[in-house]
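User: Teach me something about this protein's shape.
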Amino acid sequence: MFKNLIVYRIGEGWQPDATQLADKLAKEPFLACAPTQPLAVGWAPPRDIEHAPLVEVIDGHWLLKLKREQRLLPSSVVQERIDELAEQIEAQTGRKPGKKAKKDLKEQATHELLPRAFTKTSATRVWIAPEQRLLFVDAGSASRADEVVTLLIQAADGLSLQLVQTAESPAACMAAWLLDGVTPEGFQIERECELKGSDEQKPVVRYARHPLDIDEVRAHLTSGKMPTRLALSWNERVAFTLTEGFAIKKISFLDLAFEGKPEASGDEAFDADAALATGELGRLIPALIEGLGGEHDFAAAGTTPAPAALSTEPLAEEAAPW
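Assistant: First, the predicted structure itself:
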């Protein structure tokens, strides 16, 4: 269900009201791209059923979905059309178009080609845990998460969000776990990690499907390389990869998480999958934050974190639609 999660703390000023939020989101619904529209973004029912609620509430957890459709227009195709138009102008006037004229030609070419362009549709899921005052975006990149957070803050009155930052550096904690083999209670090191050096060459070492409790890994750590990603599992129920920026990636649910769960189909499957994911991850993530020293207290430190929607941390692959 969830593939990647970026975690935000909800500010104290927001009063949770699912019905009110759904009404606000309904003012910005997803509408497919018009023929000459390059991008369409809007809120859609999480169940993918027309006219279903825009905010699904399951076991106290809220689920939302931001949908986007983009027309794919390769720059090479646009340039080819610009060249054709430029040649026509030169043949008619005897002069090559200047810089300003070429800018106009680019707009003309794009306008002509957009109706024939293929479209790509994707969706980004949002999970809100009102009781924990946490919000999660199922995104694999900071830019995609920022897009969702920005639109959500605009829609929801009084909502403020900050990226969750832990008291201890995830990279430093992951290095310690790899060096001494001791992890927070319930967590186990799996068989993938990435180590990166801090010198000018920034060497990178990656291990995949490989034991990590070996001298070679410890030697890399003692030489100055730091973990940027580490595969972990929690209570034999959830497997995931933790990054140095406290992003949670490659989430998968293990067999133990499904024990005793009745099989469901159709619309009931959505409820069952959502309950499973929010239930397991709703326990895992607070435990992980605690294992990283707890949440950083900016007020006590006398500092102010950057607004969530201005995050610039580079994260990798995009999340698949749910």
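Now, about its shape. DSSP finds nine helices and twelve strands in the chain. The CA atoms of residues 108 and 183 lie 59 Å apart. If you'd like, I can walk through any region in more detail.
User: That's plenty for now, thanks!
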